[in-house]
């Protein structure tokens, strides 16, 4: 049986997937996970879960955040004359972020 292993480096951080182990039961999976994934790196805790219990929902199956137009949050949405220095800085940051995302 394959068990997926998630590791937390420091208290309060997220657990991240670090690999898997092959083991007949949970107890052996925990032991193998400690040996293979926590021995050399600083580790606060491990999660071990059966591989068949892990499911995925990707963007083609569900609408995640970001689908709503939230242009009102940016200073570029408003026509204010003359443009304040902070607004100009915000506009250039927004344009740069859009270029990085490939929107323009």
TrEMBL record:
Q: Which InterPro entries match?
A: PaaB (IPR009359), PaaB_sf (IPR038693)
- Superkingdom, natural source: Archaea
**Cross-referenced NCBIfam families, in alphabetical order?**
paab_haloarch
Which residue ranges are recorded for the region named Disordered?
A: 85-104
Q: Where is the composition biased (Acidic residues)?
A: 85-95
Q: Which Pfam families match?
A: PaaB
Q: Know the name of this protein?
A: Putative enzyme of phenylacetate metabolism
């Amino acid at each position: 049986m394959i068990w997926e292993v998630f590791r937390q480096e420091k208290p309060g951080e997220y657990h991240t997937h670090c690999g898997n182990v092959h083991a007949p039961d949970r107890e052996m999976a925990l032991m193998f996970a400690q040996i293979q994934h926590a021995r050399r790196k600083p580790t606060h805790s491990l999660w071990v879960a059966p591989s068949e219990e892990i499911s995925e929902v990707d963007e083609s199956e569900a609408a995640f955040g970001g689908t709503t137009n939230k242009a009102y949050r940016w200073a570029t949405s408003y026509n204010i004359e003359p443009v304040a220095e902070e607004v100009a800085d915000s506009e250039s940051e927004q344009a740069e972020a859009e270029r990085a995302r490939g929107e323009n």
